[in-house]
Amino acid sequence: MLTLDDASQNIDIGDFSELERLAGGTLPNAFKVLYLRHNGGFPPSGDFDGDEYVFSINGFNPVKYGRPSIEQLLMRLGEEYSLLKGLVPFAYDDGGNTFMLSVRDADCGVVYLWIQGESRLEKVISSFEEFLSAVESGAEE
Predict the structure, then answer these.
(1) Distance between alpha carbon 51 and the CA centroid of its chain, in Å?
(2) What CA–CA distance (Å, rounded) separates 76 from 81?
(3) Which one, of 50, 74, 49, 54, lies nearest residue 64 by Cα?
(4) CA distance 87 to 25
(5) Is the CATH code 3.40.1580.10 the one for domain 15-140?
(6) I want to staple 44 with a disulfide (CB 3.0 to 4.6 A). Which of 38, 61, 101, 139 is the partner?
(7) So where are the chain's domains?
(8) Residue spans of alpha helices (H) in 29-125
């Protein structure tokens, strides 16, 4: 299982209720398991293989108790960009772009990268479970 360094204060299962309400959907179990172990933090390595490209990841945002938290980002980005409705911002790369997890019916579980300078989404990988495996595999290389 993926290990993250320098995580924020622990959360409990009830902390996901507000996040799911704000996002308008249900978070995958793998997301909850990761965040119950590590409320954000930094992976041991930054590069991993997506479906089509190699991506880099700098860190995971905490659900709460940190800045910026997923709850804060979700509210801010949702107000600014209607395209991001139903997407949960949970991590970021070295360039300040945001990894987004879909909780929408049409593509639930898909992970995207929000490229902020271009205001566009790039599909990263087909599920959160695959995302975690790819990041963990990148850390082993």
Answers:
(1) 16
(2) 9
(3) 74
(4) 9
(5) yes
(6) 139
(7) 15-140
(8) 29-37, 70-80
> Is pTM, for the whole model, over 0.90?
yes
Q: In what order do the strands lie in the sheet with 87-92?
A: 59-60, 87-92, 98-102, 111-115, 120-125
**3-class SS string, 31-53:** HHHHHHHCECEECCCCEEECCCC
Per-residue pLDDT of the chain (141 residues; tens, 9 = 90+): 788 999 999 999 999 999 999 999 999 999 999 999 999 999 987 889 899 988 999 999 999 988 899 999 999 998 889 899 999 999 999 999 999 999 999 999 999 999 988 999 999 999 999 999 999 887 565
Diameter of the chain by CA atoms?
39
Instruction: Write the CA distances from 96 to 2, 28, 40, 76, 105, integer angstroms.
Output: 22, 24, 16, 15, 27
Q: How many residues does the chain have?
A: 141
